[in-house]
Amino acid sequence: MGGLASPVRASFVEVVEALAILAGVILAVDMNLKAVQVQSDSQSVISDLNSIATCNNWRTNLIVEKIKWKSKFFYWVHWRWISREANSAAHTAAQLGKQELGVCIWSETPPPSLTMVLRNGGLPCLHVVVI
């Protein structure tokens, strides 16, 4: 499992969420993962990713299409909505990203500030990209 945290500027929450998913998908591709489950508390973006139809949200349309295109690299991908409460690891990573001046990427061992959150999060052993 790997992860990243980086500062992002956008005017709309769903754009930030879509960019986070895109960054996670790119990281998973770079790690050469073939089966991934992407979890997010953004119901609208996950719904758009699960839809066969073109994304109707003009704010995230291009990002969602890029995510779908990049995800063709995987043999298996599952887009899963989870509640904000269940997504505490991602929000802790987001707070870490706000404190960083640049991108913080880890491939195996997360930063100490995330270790306890991930341990208590009960993530499954399937490769999971936490977004």
How would you describe what is shown here?
44% of the residues lie in helices and 16% in strands. The protein is of the alpha/beta class and 131 residues long. The strands form 2 sheets. The protein has a 3-stranded parallel β-sheet with strand order 3-2-5. Strands 1-4 form a two-stranded antiparallel sheet. The longest helix is centred in the first third of the chain and has 18 residues, at 13-30. It is globular. The protein starts with a strand and ends with a strand. Mean pLDDT is 78; it is low at 122-128.
Low-pLDDT residue spans: 122-128
Largest sheet: 3 strands, parallel
Helix content: 40-55%
Radius of gyration: 14 Å
Q: Which structural class do you get from the secondary structure elements? A: alpha/beta
Within the largest sheet, what's the order of strands? 3-2-5
